[in-house]
Structure formats: structure tokens, C-alpha cells
Amino acid sequence: MYHQVLVSVLFITAVALLALEVERHIVAVFVIVFLVALGLVSLEDFYVLVDWDVVGLVLCMSVYSAVLEISGFAKWAAWGVAKRTRSPLLLLYTLTLLAGLVSLVLENAVTVFIFAPVAFAVASLLNVDVKKLLVGIALAAGMSGSATMIGDPPAIIVAGRYNLAFTDFIIYESKPSMFFITLIPMIIATGAHILYNFRSAEMRQVSSSSLNADTIDRRFVLEALVFLFLKISLLSLRRELHVPLTLPALVALTGLYATRITLHRDYESVKRSLREGLNYKLPLFLVSVFLLSGSLKRHGVTDIVAEFIMRSVGANIIVLGVVVFAISALLSSLIENIPVTLTLIPVVDSIAPQIGVNPVILIWGVLSGLTAGGGYTYIGSGANVVAVHILDSKGSKISFTGFAKTALAFNLVNTALVLSMYTVIWLLY
Question: Helix count (H) and strand count (E) of the chain?
Fold first, then answer.
């Protein structure tokens, strides 16, 4: 009982610090120090409770995101769309949607950074409010996080915990899974966002001569995409090949680096991607949350939460799935999605055997809630935080309520569709 209270207080304190926007690596150090000092974890638990394979893949994906950014992949795609689209409304829609599609393989915050210069240029040419455009880009990018296994840390965490392959996020047990549950609503919600915010705006027409992209090394883009495809292929076959999560990412990075160095003598891109991608803050935060989540499970806190949910709503899979979705969405609108994921996984693991279902069915509800809920506030997603930061730095400050109002149409349509698709596909049949 004593340990339950201690670990619960520590968890609540960590959540409060994250909600107050304390940097997550500082929260990580706080959590680790107190877990060890209070005797809640031992040095052995750093091996037992932490999924180092997941940490490795997240770190490799961070480096590969830096590679894709340096190659100019997203900028090449964005400017290509901008040059080929004449209708102002269609241009805004296509550009926003493209950000969501690019975020399938690129970290969503990085996607917003890359698309921001294009957004400012297009907004200026069309004479529209750049705040509304960049918020839309952030919302679309954030929705793609759990669509694929490599889109965001929560998806990687789930893949590691339940031994899922890349293709399981597309089709699982012969049913559409996260790719369709997130992507289809995002496509429709993006249209709602554009119509809600720009339909009545007086926009100028765009000529292709008005849009000039920076010089982009298309060969570098092609090479980065080839090795990305190799990584996805290996991750799709990981169960058959019996390979850890990290290995495909290391193979892809090694192949790309070897190509850049031997064929192009491009040492600078390699050094820059390692310098920008090898950031200790996210892995440190992941380690701390793994330890905290493991402690909550070990000392029975997550079992108590699971029992409370079961007593409150009963054993009906439909009701439980909707409740898990709602809890995930609410929490993700307020705090970082990684601790939400690692906290709810053991709760789901406790509930699933009691009602006789595969825990992955409820985990899809957790991931669906994370993606849908993250757009309601600008602190709910890394993409949103980056968008607000960029707008502030450019003198286009957007308030908390201003963000919520701008994002309203996207969020209402998106949440309704995500919940409906998850319920129909996974809870009713």
C-alpha cells in the first residue's frame, strides 16, 4: 500500500509537470531520481522494465527523420504540389493533406518545421491567414502518428509490446487497423478544416512562376526513399525473420550512409544527421516512463485502475472500448502521448483477459484516442507546439483559445470519424 501511494504521487507529479510544459528530459531526471531514491526500482530494473529495442528504434527513427529533412524530401514534395495546383482552396487542402501523408514516415514535429516555410510563402501569395494554414498542417501531421508502426513513439511502443509487424498497422486479423482508422478521418477532417477556415476568404490565384523551390538534391531524396522502403520491408517481415525492431533501421541507415560516403563523398550530411538526430532527451524520457509505467504495474496501481473501470462500466467490449478511447483522448489533449501510452498498456493488459479479448483490440482504441485527442489543445501534440512556436517567432502569435477555435472543425469531424470507424471495425464485429 505504501509503495502504491508513492508511485501514484510520483506519476501525478510527473503528469502535472508535463502539463505545465516543463521540458520532458528534466521530468525524466526527476522521475528516475525519485524512483531509485524511494526504492521503487533497482538498477536491475533498468534492464527488466525498459524496452531497449523500442528505445533503439525511436532513436534510429529520429536520425532517419533528420536524414529525410536534410535530403529535402518534404520540401521537394510540398513545392511540387504547390506548383501543380491552380485552385487556391485545392492548393490549401492538398498542401495540408500532404503534411499528414509525409508524417507517415517523418516525425510530426519535424514535418511542421519543414512545411512551415512553404506555408508562409503560400499564405502570402494567396493572401490568407498563415495561422490557420499552419495549424491545419500541424493537425494533419499529428493525426498520422499512429497510422504506421514508425510514425510516432506510441506506435513503436505498441509494436514492441505486442510483437506487431509494420503490416499489422494496416491490416490486423483480416481487418483494417490504424492506417485506415486514422488516415481516412484525417483526409475528410482536413477538408472540413479548409472549408471552415478559408471558404469565405478572398484569395488570389497562384501562377507557377510565383513559386520557386530551393535547389533540392533529387538523387539524395531518391536514395533516402529507397532505404526507407527497405526498412519498412524488413519491419513488415520481422516476425518471419525473427529480427528486433532496431535492426531494420540500422540496416537502412548503414546502407544510406555507405551510399552517401562512397558514391558522393557526402560526409557533411552524415555528420549533420547524426548531430541532429542523436538527441539524448527523447531516449532519456522514454527510459523514465518505462520505469514509471513498470512501477505502476508492479505495485498494482494499474490493476486497481482496471478493476475500477470494470466495476464502473461492466464487461461490455463496446462500452470498454469507447471508455478506453475517451480516457486516451482526454489525457493526450493535456500531456505528452508517450506516458499516456505506457500507462494505459498495463491497464488494457489487465482488462483484456477478464473479458476474453485480444488486448490489441483495446490498444487500437488507445492509439485512436491519442491521435484524435492530441489536436484539441496546442500542448496535446509536438506538432501543435512547434506550429505555435514558429508562429510566435514570426510575429503571428496565436492564443490558446484561438488555436482551439481554429482547430474546432478538424477535431469534431476527426474525432467522430475515428471513434465511429474504431467502434464499427473492432468493437461491433
Answer: 22, 2
DSSP 424: I
Single pTM value for the model? 0.82
Nearest one of 71, 13, 33 to 291, comparing CA atoms: 33
Average the pLDDT over 275-303 and give the result. Answer: 85
b/e sequence 21-60, b meaning 16+ C-beta within 10 Å: eeebbebbebbbebbeeeebbeeebeeebbbbebbbbbbb
Q: What sign for the dihedral angle of Cα 146, 151, 154, 157?
A: positive
Look up residue 426 and give its DSSP letter.
Answer: I
User: Crossing angle of helices 408-422/130-143, nearest 10°?
Assistant: 20
Per residue in 344-393, pLDDT tens?
Answer: 999 999 999 988 899 999 999 999 999 999 888 887 777 888 888 888 87
Task: Please give the DSSP secondary-structure letter assigned to residue 304.
Answer: H
**What are the start-end ranges of the H helices in 20-107?**
24-37, 45-48, 52-71, 73-84, 88-102
Q: What is the pLDDT of residues 411-426, one digit of tens each?
A: 999 999 999 999 999 9
Confidence tier at 215 by pLDDT (50, 70, 90): low
Spatial separation of the C-alpha atoms in residues 276 and 241, rounded to whole Å: 31
